[in-house]
Design brief:
The structure is a homodimer of 200-residue chains. The first copy, chain A, contains 10 helices and no strands. Chain A has helices at residues 11-33, 40-47, 51-57, 61-81, 89-105, 107-121, 123-131, 134-147, 156-175, 180-199. The radius of gyration of chain A is 20 Å and the shape is elongated. Chain A binds chain B through residues 34-36, 114-116, 118-120, 122-124, 127, 154-155, 157-159, 161-170, 172-173, 176, 183, 186-187, 190-191, 193-194, 196-198, and chain B through 34-36, 114-116, 118-120, 122-124, 127, 154-155, 157-159, 161-170, 172-173, 176, 183, 186-187, 190-191, 193-194, 196-198. The structure holds a DNA duplex (30 and 30 nucleotides). Chains A, B: Keywords: DNA-binding, Transcription, Transcription regulation.
Amino acid sequence: MESRQRSTRTKAQQREQTIRTLVGEARSLFATRGYAHVSLADIVQAAGVTKGALYHHFTGKEDVFRAVLEQVHQEVGERIAASAPTSDAWTQLLSGCRTFLTASTEPNIQQIMLIDAPSVLGWGVWRELDATTSMQHLQEALQVLIDDGTIPDQPVLPVVHLLSGAMNEAALWLARSANREHDLAHTMTALERMLESLRR
Amino acid sequence: MESRQRSTRTKAQQREQTIRTLVGEARSLFATRGYAHVSLADIVQAAGVTKGALYHHFTGKEDVFRAVLEQVHQEVGERIAASAPTSDAWTQLLSGCRTFLTASTEPNIQQIMLIDAPSVLGWGVWRELDATTSMQHLQEALQVLIDDGTIPDQPVLPVVHLLSGAMNEAALWLARSANREHDLAHTMTALERMLESLRR
DNA sequence: CGAAGATACATACCGTCGGTATGTTCGTGT
DNA sequence: ACACGAACATACCGACGGTATGTATCTTCG
């Protein structure tokens, strides 16, 4: 039975809305100032609620950060997945890498995903989350290339970690580059050469 | 004229000793618990001094961490420099990479240098420090190989950042590996292949 | 040699922050 | 209609980073 809505928002809507703005404001604050320099007071003030509301939905500051990080990871993953929908596996891998580099260069993604996350949540948790999104894409793409014989059979995990770390660091560097487009081009050619080395 | 030493320790010796133990204890605490979960009270208690002493030599908690990080960086740099004293540039690069991977796998180096440092000091400061030690070696080695024609002329910075990031992440992964020696071997072969790709 | 100043610490205290316990409102199932 | 629980708000606590100030010890120089 449907309940009439005496008020404009139902409880569930209210909950969702509060969490959304909370995570959203927290994300922008974390991105610009860094996790350590953001207080819970800042977050709840920006979201227009109180600490009690925050602690009703999250277990603490770290939990808010985890929610933010999950959102960021999901966003990056979607952008990678949508980068080259219809192509062969090889060019799909390349465009995926390029998309990751450009996405991870944006400051509001970078500070959260690449700088603070390992320190705040610990490397293990960070890698777990990453393994379900961007790293997942990389690993799958490589496995496909191994299965269809494009690159010889070899342990994928070492390669995945090497490439993932390479792109993470490259993204951090590119974000501070004075000539980003120029450096991105050189980085991509160098990265392509590294990927080619797997081929042969 | 030398001043006679009425006491067992002169002031300069005392200062040096205090700083040494302070940094040493802080390092071990930071390494095991991570920066955020170490209080100044923990550090000064372990070092056997008070907060006043700490604040006499350092500007704050962050400054202590910076001193610790500099020590770690210097240590890693020395180990890399001593890894392959008399060889051609190419094998020198390879053994340098191997040394970095094994050194950075140790937990008391890893937590400080690879996990906390970017978040605590900011990526810029972290990279500055790195650029004077481990990254410095990598860049110089590559430049030598370019100058003697082993690898073709190309922008070094993109390659340096890609390789540096790759090894950082690989070290973090190897540290949690169930079969470290085995994975290290595969990582090195994959890394060698990537380096080979620069050659030709 | 000894007073003056600098250096190396110790003690006491403050503001802020993360976290918790409790109170209040209000939608919702029965 | 009403009771219950979810969604908040309010008030408060302990701990931590940081600072101000006091004190003992070494060094310097007339």
